[in-house]
Amino acid sequence: MMRSEKYICVFLVILLMTLAAQAGTIRGTIDYEGPIPRLKPIKMDADPICHAKHEGPVASESLVLGEGQTMANVFVRVKNPKKKIYETPNEPVVVSQKGCIYSPHVFGVMVDQPVKFLNEDGTLHNVHAMCKTNKEFNMAMPKFRKVATRTFTEAEDMFLIKCDVHPWMGAWISVMTHPFFATTGKEGTYEIKDLPPGEYEIEVWHEKLKTLARKVKISAEDDIQVADFTFQHPSLKKKVTE
Ligand SMILES: [Cu+2]
């Protein structure tokens, strides 16, 4: 290697280390406050194949709480990242249809990133994407069609994917132009990494309780900011505003 090439290599390494050091992180926990509604279990009797895949009642997906009323299935995103073109990952988001339930139930995908739908049930499903900006599609997945891949070419806020054969099946999807998003599991936590310094608006979305937002500032040098959110039962909100 020539001397000048060595200098260039050293310079690039230092530059990369500097860029990495300036990436901040926003993390937090989402929880729920208020009375927990008694949600009816999902009835799968209409399809004996689905029904047979579960031993007991199948819990509703519309409010899934962990210990301490932490919330699952909350989509967290940065609303105003720096405007630039972010690389689309090649690896697909995998969505399984197993036990006649979509998993994950809520997720984000980047524009043009593949979404791989798996049919693990040995029964007929169809993937009906109720998008508006993207082209709506309705794709049959008979029991022998175990994998089908689709992409979404336009950014689009949350829309529903449903199965017309099994009306209880639903998944929520957001098509993103950047990678700064996450979905909570039952422990209610999220983490969004690699954010350059700046002021960000963090929005959290839940299918029933809608959205909350707040501003978070990332300063330079490995800043870690915590942004927790609490969704309230609508009855509590009324008390506050009255
Ligand atoms: Cu189905």
Structural summary, described in words:
It is a single chain. By secondary structure, this protein is mainly β. The protein contains three helices and 17 strands. The chain has a five-stranded mixed beta sheet with strand order 5-11-10-7-8, with no helix packed on it. The protein binds copper (II) ion. Copper (II) ion binds next to loops.
**Form type:** globular
Q: Give the oligomeric state of the chains in this entry, treating copies of one chain as homo and distinct chains as hetero.
A: single chain
**Count of helix runs:** 3
Order of helices and strands: HEHEEEEEEEEEEEEEEEEH
CATH topology of the largest domain: Immunoglobulin-like
Name of the CATH homologous superfamily of the largest domain: Carboxypeptidase-like, regulatory domain
Strand content: 35-45%
Count of domains: 2
**What ligands can be seen in this structure?**
copper (II) ion
Return the CATH class of the largest domain.
Mainly Beta
Which CATH architecture of the largest domain would you pick?
Sandwich
